[in-house]
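Lab notebook, bench 4. Still working through the backlog of constructs that have no structural model yet. Next entry is a single chain of 264 residues. Request: give me the structure tokens for it.
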Amino acid sequence: MNSQTALVTGASEGIGLEFCKILAGRGYNLILVARRERKLNEIALELSQSHGIQCTVVAADLSLPQAAQLLFKNTKDQGLHVDFLINNAGLLHNGPFCELSLAEQETMITVNVQVLTSLTHLFANDMATRNTGHILNVASLAAWTPIPYQNVYAATKAYVLAFTQALADEMNAEGNGVVISALCPGYTATKMMDNPDQGATLRISPKMMMSPKDVAKQGITGCLSGKNTIVPGISNKISTAVTHLVPKMTLAKILGRFYRKNMY
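Model written out:
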């Protein structure tokens, strides 16, 4: 039985929930983090009974001040050592930049950038003292190109990718045993694809989407095998290759037309 512990943010649904299921199947004890405590308790009960693991629930709104520091302190106070951190929590808002709420866009930057950075800093230092650990930061295919109508979201994910790749090199050079990886999924069949709370909805064919289970599986496998950049799916790999061949402004114009045609 694996005695290691994984912490997953955004654990209540979508890719985050699939991360938890896969890790539970591998014998990891889990720290489940999201806002909905009741939902987390249901997941924790199911996974602990099904896999014989220990699950700790931490209901937290990561957009609040000092959220990362409080979460880290919570794990320490409970004597929990995190061996695998998955920074999965993230927000998305679609629509014209000037029409979207400024407060909501600032919150998106807080969760997608600031909290992810803080949690990585806190847990990477802790892992380094034990000379072992894995951190998987969930970026996006959007990280590779500017996207009109998702401009702030795409920019936050570009930060996650660049930050993670640079940090991966640092940690490798220091030889402290900590592996840092970025996961860049494309369109995935989750609530994010049809959520009125995040502004406009983008009309995407189901054929263009991966399942959250496949995305999570490739992310975990890639990180544990030491890959620093993980792009799940053949079509997504082709898309990232194209971004290196086409000027950024040209990509922005192409995607702008696509989003204007398919947003509602």
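Notes after review: The chain has a mean pLDDT of 94. The chain has one domain: 5-262. Flag for follow-up if needed.
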